[in-house]
Amino acid sequence: MKVREVTPSADTDTLLAGAHFADAFQIEIEDCDFDARRAAERMMARQPRWAEALLSLRNLLVAPLGLRTSGAGLVPPRDMIGIFPVVSQTPYRLIAGFNDRHLDFRVVVDVTHSGGVGQVTATTLVKTHNWFGRTYLAIITPFHRLIVPALLRQVAA
Prior knowledge:
Elements: E1 3-6, H1 12-15, E2 21-30, H2 36-44, H3 49-62, E3 80-81, E4 84-89, E5 93-99, E6 103-114, E7 117-128, H4 131-156
Antiparallel strand pairs: 1-2, 2-7, 3-4, 4-5, 5-6, 6-7
């Protein structure tokens, strides 16, 4: 199954008011019979080894700066998908993410069904707060554009 970049259709002002960055990737899956939570779980179940290595490097570099390396430990404890706290969910949409000092982000997983074919769309929204957030976003964007399609392919696997 091929992943393609699409125009984000999510209402960014509702999901993350003032977002500075938005992108979306989509995959079509035949005989898709799952909801948004199951799609998000399949996406986040495991990462390609190269993505895990990048995430480990990222965590090593940002931990001394006091940035979160995951959403774990947020108060109050929340439902998690991978390393991301679930903000809200319906059968057709799951929103995960958290706010940090340098940026706020949301990952939105939408699932639609039509004629036995499902579409799973992963939209990423980011709102930066300062120069560090803007710099961080600029550095990770090329990697993000590789990782999200790789994670979406896992939904079809």
